[in-house]
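A note on notation is needed here, since sequence and fold are reported together in a single record. The reader may check this reading against the record printed directly beneath this paragraph.
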Amino acid sequence: MNAITQERGRHYLLTAVRHIPLILWAFIVMLPLLMLFFISFKDNAEYANTLPIMPPKNFLNFENYKRTLIEGHILRSMLNSFILVVCGSTLNVMLGAMTAYCLERFDFKLKKYVKALYVASAIIPHSLLQVVIYKIMYSLKLTGTLGAPIILYALPGIIQVWIFLQFFEKLPVSMDESAMIDGASFLRIFIQIIFPLLLPATATILITQSIYIYNDMFTQYLYCPSTNLKTATTALMTFSGQFATTFNVMASGCIAVMIPTLILFLALQKRVFAGLTVGAVKG
């Protein structure tokens, strides 16, 4: 019995040691969020005289959140973000699936070069292309509207195309050939046969792209600077100025903006990881 007890104790000790780095990393990640949560309930005096890590005296002080709703127009900004998320992520999925379908099912002369361009787009920093992209959007008279960010978000990148390609490799070409014998066009094959089989990849890209669009600030601030077109992230800049910044009110705005993405990720995280891992290992 002593040997069995010692073996169990050694097993539990090794398990605890292996989990120490994960616990430390979780603490490091959660500490800024915890400090942000505490600051959001503090008034100006308490914030100035206490450490950020210290809990507030009153968790029922919602004055900062009221200012966020009234002065920051968070609800209207969230509506603009919702429009960008729905339009941008939906178009991104459709165009990404169509691009992967063409690259996987069709053979053409420039196929290798198109794939190389997608890889190159991941290497080149997007900030280097913003001057050219802005000039294009300005010439199309889309600056100052939601149309410019929607178009930019709709364009599929290498990640979206790669995920869809992993799924296409597992779909037999015989399905396409059978449908073509029955007289189906390529578009009908894609919509009625291929696309429904891409549900795991579609769910993954929809979720990740939605979170990216919702949290993106650079593109939305660049093309939608006006007050009526502010999004959830750019609305937080209302409380940040050149000479003064109300950090406690901004903290409450960050918490409010964070809630939708947190709920979405916690509810659908299994689909995200399933879509990323399916197709990673080939049989």
